[in-house]
């Protein structure tokens, strides 16, 4: 993950050569759970922050499997207020593939 320190963590999470299995949904959800801005460069994250994002993604993916794919998401494809702080959620394309990232500018800013 740290090989390209200027790369945003949200984009790096989708790189299957770095970490396998995290897709667009869990990229957004894991960054939200860890309260990390998905555009924040990997090189600016402390080890504890990077670990928090990766562990959140793992836990959420395991939960989704256990729940048979019927999972309610905190930010992914949601409109309206953040479930944690009440501020409006945001979304925009990220990375070379321009995959839509969802986040809360209040909690993750």
Task: Describe this entry's structure for a reader.
- With 109 residues, the protein is of the alpha+beta class.
- It starts with 8 loop residues before the first helix and ends with a helix.
- Helix content is 37%, strand content 9%.
- α2 (24-34) packs across α3 (47-66).
For this structure, the CATH topology is Helicase, Ruva Protein, domain 3
**Unreliable parts:** none
Can you count the helices? 4
Query: Got a strand count?
Result: 2
Terminus-to-terminus distance: 21 Å
Shape: globular
For the record, the CATH class is: Mainly Alpha
**How many separate domains make up the residues?**
1
User: Roughly what is the average pLDDT, rounded to an integer?
Assistant: 94
Strand order of the largest sheet: 1-2
- Secondary-structure-derived class: alpha+beta
What CATH architecture do you see? Answer: Orthogonal Bundle
Radius of gyration: 13 Å
H/E element order: HHHEEH
Measured as a percent range, the helix fraction is 25-40%
* Oligomeric description of these chains: single chain
Q: State the major sheet.
A: 2 strands, antiparallel
Classify the beta-strand content into a percent band.
5-15%
